[in-house]
Amino acid sequence: MRYAILAMGALVVSLVAPSPGLAAEPSLAGAEPGLAAAGAKAGLAVDDMVFCAAIKDRSPAGVADTFPADIYSVYCFTRLAGTRGATAIKHAWYRGGTKAGDVGLAVTRLPWRTWSTKEMHKEWKGDWRVDVLGPDGTVLASKKFFLK
Description:
This protein has one domain: Sandwich (Immunoglobulin-like). The protein is built from three helices and nine strands; from the N terminus they run H-H-H-E-E-E-E-E-E-E-E-E. The strands form two sheets. A five-stranded mixed β-sheet has the order 3-9-8-5-6. A four-stranded antiparallel β-sheet has the order 2-1-4-7, with no helix packed on it.
């Protein structure tokens, strides 16, 4: 019995660490049933939200609110806290007032850190915004950056 618990613990550890693959616009379509309901009860909150030029060792690098137009992509790094449970969030990216994309992100436990990235193009200069949406669609946080 003890061996089974240890083996199960190892599996959990391998599933809870976010990986770069999760950050590349995953879909919520394959999410476990009931995650949204669990998140609504979790008291989910955004502890930190920053924009950066890269992610290194699962941490933001090159944090800024203004980026040059020739940058390849911008990352939105989000640190979440709450009382318990697995859930899912979305990063909704906006260029000006127009939605530029949604990125679904699984949250396996709290606290949790995750990120999404959006490829930039030189002609997309101007104001950008990312909203962090909870499982029920509620805006948990919103932040702007500028592509110059």
